[in-house]
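Quick question, first post here. What does this chain look like in 3D?
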Amino acid sequence: MRFRWLTVLCTMMLVLIISACGAAGNEASSSEGQEAGTANSSTTETSQVKKVTTEMGEVEIPVNPQKIVGLSVVYPEFLYSLGIVPIAVQNYHEDFPSYLQEPFANTMKMGIGRTPNFEALMEAAPDLIIAPDWWSKKDYDQLTLIAPTVLLPQRDDWRDELRDMAKILDKEEQAEKVIQDLVDKEKVAAAKLDKLIGEETVLYIRVMEKEIVLHGENLDRGNFVHKRLGMNPLPNFPKDQTAMSVSLEVLPEYDADHLIVQLDDETNPEIKKKFEDMLSSSLWKNLKAVKQDHVYMVGGKEWFNLGMSPLADEYVIDDIVAAFEAKNK
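> Answer (accepted):
Ran it through. Tokens below.
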């Protein structure tokens, strides 16, 4: 382990030396070009810099960065929604969600460790790193040795996070369009769902390895289902709860007309076994939604960032509408 860190530090020093030499060479070339009275082809927007205000103070970044890394699982999606394909990302799942597989075909995967893979980052050679401060503040000094690093503040709403990123990248108008387009899509979907099920109640369940979680309307996923898509929650779901962990025995107390069911990880054998046991239980079989075939299996990689990313939200809207249309014609 000690040898590995020495290797990383030496590599970082080598990168700094090469960068310094390159910068000196560019300055010399620029002077020569100006003396000759010709335009210097290396003096482009990519070599120009600007100062931006960040959580760590003023930082000098490229005016037009070409190789951006977004740390955390959400920032790569923000970048792509702004029209930028990151050069490297942190990834929770082995494969990208379907809506990113084609555009991210050549994007490096670095895993999801809270401490980033510095060797992979150096290999990617970014010209800008963007990360949330709560995720990467502890690594800031090391990240800045690889590329200019911008830490953005933690926000309660992903829309504000997207706006913060857009401001750094001079893409404010695009961010507002992304936000408004999603609002428009939500309204269309809510109208379709209202036509399909009207005032009937909906409960969103996540089956996890050690528990069953019921999502209320006060946070992220439940908020998306009930407030943004307008599907009625159960009247007896506690108003002050964002989510509740329950046992199978308690589930009949929350007997909704429709159940949206997500396995937290479809590849986890423990979760699959837990769900199979649920399906064979008389408690499950006697639920109103089960009897009426109003259970909608959803989830996977595409639902991982639901309520935290416009791309995930867009996908989930289409997924939910298609699932309800298939069983409520």
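The CA atoms of residues 49 and 62 lie 4 Å apart.
The radius of gyration is 24 Å.
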